[in-house]
Design brief:
Length: 245
């Protein structure tokens, strides 16, 4: 007969993960489902809950024992526990981070292509770029043109970053949102790189140059804004479902 875990046992699994340094709730949410399924399967074969937890703990690459000196510091003693080691979970989190980075990069590329296929975004970006040319005709100084380019890019970087930080809270316990917060600054890094490139060759930035920076800045800024807001919205829905169970 298939065994089903109680709410207390599921809560125990979450506490177990927290004590084993799995601090990111998005990682815990995935692991809880996986561990619960594995434990239920083992219990259905007659294994006790505690024994099943130990078997699953070891299956992640965690050691079942740790050694420590006795009180007299004269010999090593070995302690068997599901809290003895969490190195397997550390490797799992690193692998998850790599997967997320790959996923975000793919999402960035596909979202850029979608923006170029949507007339409303292209029209907005082109109007902005030609607006920069118009500002130059009004005798705007190079510093004023730089500011006109910088402010929209800054806003498109800070708004999704603030949204991400607000979502994950002060403890920053969401792996995906933490990583995405770093990506939100990419448009600003791009701005700095392109705006300082002429100076490295002893040249001054021209109006055409600022139009190029503004074009790519808006494209990348809108892209990152869409990726961040879509991702956080999905994660909020997952979190609400997870906590309601």
């Amino acid at each position: 007969m298939k065994k089903t875990l109680t709410q207390e046992q599921i809560a125990f699994i979450e506490t177990y993960l927290i004590q084993n340094k799995v601090k990111y709730w998005d990682v815990r949410a995935e692991l809880i489902d996986h561990i619960a399924t594995q434990v239920e399967e083992k219990m259905s074969m007659g294994v006790s809950f505690d024994a099943a937890m130990m078997q699953v703990h070891v299956s992640f690459g965690n050691r079942p024992q740790k050694r420590k000196l006795n009180k007299e510091n004269t010999q090593w003693i070995f302690e068997t526990s599901i809290y003895a080691d969490h190195s397997g979970f550390e490797r799992l989190i690193k692998d998850k981070q790599k997967q997320l980075n790959i996923g975000f990069r793919k999402a960035f590329g596909s979202t850029v292509l979608k923006i170029f296929k949507q007339p409303k975004y292209l029209l907005f970006i082109l109007l902005y770029v030609f607006g920069l040319y118009y500002l130059e005709s009004l005798n705007f100084t190079p510093k004023q043109l730089k500011l006109a380019v910088f402010v929209p890019i800054l806003a498109l970087s800070l708004i999704p970053m603030a949204y991400s930080i607000f979502f994950i809270g002060k403890k920053r316990q969401h792996l995906g949102a933490n990583l995405l917060g770093v990506y939100t600054m990419f448009p600003l890094h791009m701005f700095n790189m392109l705006s300082f490139m002429p100076k490295s060759f002893g040249l001054e930035m021209t109006t055409a140059g600022w139009m190029v920076v503004g074009f790519f800045g808006l494209v990348f800024g809108i892209t990152q804004y869409k990726i961040t807001t879509n991702y956080i919205s999905k994660q909020k829905a997952i979190y609400n479902r997870w906590k309601s169970v």
